[in-house]
Amino acid sequence: NGRAPYGWQWSEGELVKNEGEQEVIKLITELRELGVTLAAIAQNLNDAGYITKRNGKWTATTVRRTLKAIA
Is the pLDDT of residue 1 over 80? Predict the structure, then answer.
């Protein structure tokens, strides 16, 4: 199965949406559409207590990778 991308999780061998992570993706997308920088989005997510898939802090790179994965 491999690692599920951010916003998704494995359930009985199939990828299904992770609703909590989908909300974060929506927030990232909305902020980016408003012209917020990747670094500022990462700071916003960290300040709000959101964690990455690997239980880490958000960086501009993780935000960029998340956006690229959903494009």
Answer: no
pTM: 0.87
CB 10 within 8 A of CB 1: yes
Q: Are 40 and 14 in contact (CB under 8 A)?
A: no
Report the distance separating Cα 12 and Cα 60, nearest Å: 33
Which residue in 61, 24, 26, 29 sits closest to 45, CA to CA?
24
Helix (H, G, I), strand (E, B) or coil at 69: helix
| Range 44-47, long-range pairs (CB < 8 A, 24+ positions) | none
Q: Which residues pair with 10 in a beta bridge?
A: 15
- Give the CA angle between residues 66, 51, 67 to the nearest 5°: 10
Q: Alpha-carbon distance 8 to 16, whole Å?
A: 6
Cβ atoms of residues 52 and 6 within 8 Å: yes
